[in-house]
Specification:
mainly alpha, 17 helices
Amino acid sequence: MADRQNDFSQGSIPRNIMNLAIPMTAAQLVNVLYSVVDRVYLGHLPDSDSLALTGLGVTMPIVSILMGFANLCGTGGAPLCSISRGKGDDKEAERVMGNAFVLLLLLGAVCTAFFLVMKEPILYLFGASPDTFPYADGYMTIYLWGTLFVMVSLGMNPFINAQGFGKVGMMTVLLGAGVNIALDPVLIFVFHMGVRGAALATVFSQGLSAAWVLAFLTGRKAILRLRRENLRLDKARTGKIISLGLSGFFVNMTNSLVQVVCNATLQHYGGDLYVGVMTIINSIREVFIMPVQGLTNGAQPVEGYNYGARRYQRVRQAIRFTVGVTLAYSALFWAAAMLFPQPLIHIFKSGPDILEAGVPAMRVYFAMFLFMSLQMAGQGAFVGLGRARQSVFFSLLRKAIINAPLTLILPVWMGASGVFVAEAASQLIGGLACFVTMYFTLYRPLGRMEDGNPAA
């Protein structure tokens, strides 16, 4: 019965997408609260100036790397599940999910060991100073012990959404984030644990989310279940998962790379103040970009299912709908960032120095956000249809090829503000390149295919 209800080749395309995207967007927004709420509380710690907030910002590249490995398995395996479901091959879909789960466990164990051993030199490399290192180290040490929880909750939740259970996927995040929000002030302020309390609340919350995901995927309500016989890794299958998942992986890895380069460059040209400004801007970006990610992630199962079922005109309709809604939302966020930067910054930290540096930096950073949203829509279509090479290329193009070099070059002439100009330039160039390529190599060719016939 559930399988028939979640047949995306039937019914309204916008309704199918929104039925997944609304709970997924809510889940994405709440998921961001794990780290953003930590930053809000730590930014208002007494007697710490901006050091606790800045120290937490230094750990963000490591968190992004861990999320990248979770995305490697989740965004790699879930679209393959959707395509297999569209073809009517649920057994293969379950094998993909089982292989992705084993990969998550292996990668999580390796990441935990590596970062625990190397965290001190890595944190200094990522922009820590002698003043901010104790805060960064205190948070990261506890957070790393919960890596497996993070990997399972983030990496396996897409397999719930791929089956059409968007509300269950939303509950994965709501459960953990609700507990995290409740525990944060208690551990940070009541028990005076500071950054360690924030990390402990996050680890405990992610553990609950991971337990919820596994309980559903091994239970009777799931269409596709985690079964013991599917946990043996298959070389060809895992290769497909990794190949397609490299897009999501490189999004996080290149984000981490740019965060490292930005923090180190800002530390050189502006000191801890500008590293703190970048932490605030990244936090605002994470909150406001989540609806775009929720929409594109919600569209992927619908696009992949219809592509597997050879309903190509429905795939085109899904792409059009996703792009239109993405642009409309992004225009609203752009206006908010341009008109109201001061209130947004005040959420995290008050003070004349942080406002003087942060307001112009924020306006420059988000100046080309509309083009960034076009890239997300384009890459979402590539991933949804299993086009691994294109999605990987554009993940690398914007951040690694455009943003990182400009972040090193522009501050030589522009000082700390050059870091924020580099981001705006990469959004413009990378976003246009990705969207135009998706239009001519994917969207238009789909229009020449007849429904029910194999893809050319």
